[in-house]
Amino acid sequence: MELRSYWAIIRRRWWLPVVLIALTALWWLVARRPWQPRPVTYATSLSFSVGVRPEPRTGDYYTYDRYYTWLASEYLVDDLSEVVRRSEFARAVSQRLADRGITVPPGAIQGSTQAGKLHRVLTLSITWGDPDQLAAIAEAAAAVLGEEAGAFLPQTMADDVEAHLIDRGAIVPVGPSPRERLDLPLRLFLGLVAGIALAFLLDYLDDSVRGPADLEALGITVVGEIPRSS
Fold it and tell me: Would you say 80 and 51 are in contact if contact means Cβ atoms under 8 Å apart?
């Protein structure tokens, strides 16, 4: 089948993609209601340098202590990046907030916290709807990680683990994510593709004869054609 044949099918049933795109856009407008103001979300990040204290020297001899200290930092960042996303860390942060008279459920803290790591630096990212509460949560999280990091790692001696806050990010409003921005264009594109596919399916199931090519495809010789009246 030539490209002109494909184009003829699309032109013959052009209304199918148009209807699907219109229905998709209408559903999106009703479901998302973009004309209504969206609640503002705020975000901040905390960066920590993580490591263990070297063992005190007990004599004048060579050790590989500093090598193992750096190596332990790599493992600690890996483990702590998982710890800060778990429920017990969120519970400890929630308890710190409760001591200050701020009630925030641990589950909400856990769902708003993300962790990242680069070399021996651990980054904690928190998103929240209220900037004042976000500042309190970030402060409590920094206190828990700075004072209790070793308690979450029983394989270490708790007092040897050090987590120092090296960067306290500003609290900034968060705009729509790339996924949210691309949501409508992607849905419209899928509606277009589905409409075109449906047009080809209906054309395949349609056994109407529209021209000499359709008869020749059935093995019938066309000896003449009555032109359309102008």
Answer: no
